[in-house]
Amino acid sequence: MTGDTVERRHSLFPDFNDWFNREFPGLPGWRPGGAAHSIPVEVTGGDGAYVLRAELPGMDPDDVTVTVEDNLLTVSAEHTGSDEDKEHSEFRYGSFRRTVRLPGTIPAEAVEASCKDGILTVRVPMPEERAGTRRTVPVRRADEEARS
Q1: Which end of the chain has fewer CB within 10 Å, C or N?
Q2: What is the pLDDT of residues 61-99, one digit of tens each?
Q3: What are the phi and psi torsion angles at 87 (to 5°)?
Q4: What percent of the chain has pLDDT over 70?
């Protein structure tokens, strides 16, 4: 994989949570205890940067954490419910987490994140990968090195 293209799979960027948080047949909505809800994301690349947009409706930006490590970008958040009795609710409460793998080491100090209207936007400028360079290395005679 080169630095300017993203490896294509069934999902643009596979999520580690997708491997473990799938619903089991016959158990709709079942999730392992302590499992985080997955965050819907879209990732675009071009002009030397990747942009991750994540849906976080109703989330306060102060409750959202973005971390980078090597080539992994992780968005996590916590959404707490009210103590009010509800007759019906389809809201999701608890921990939310999504990790995506980018095709190169992320320059952590250059990552920027902002949130507006429930959409988190993370911009990751990726350094240009240097194309393989070729050069001819001069070979000196060993006896010339010994005299120097």
Answers
A1: C
A2: 999 999 999 999 999 998 887 778 888 888 888 888 999
A3: -80, -30
A4: 69
Average pLDDT estimate for 46-50? 89
Average per-residue pLDDT for the chain: 77
Long-range contacts of 126-134 (CB under 8 A, 24+ apart): 126/3, 126/45, 126/48, 126/49, 126/50, 126/102, 127/48, 128/3, 128/48, 129/2, 129/3, 129/4, 129/104
Contact 58, 91 (CB under 8 A): yes
The DSSP line for the chain is --TTS----SSSS--HHHHH-PPBTTBTT---TTPPEEPPEEEEEETTEEEEEEE-TT--GGGEEEEEETTEEEEEEEEPPPSS--S------EEEEEEEE-SS---GGG-EEEEETTEEEEEEE-PPPPPPP--PPP---HHHHHH-
The mean pLDDT value for 116-120 works out to: 94
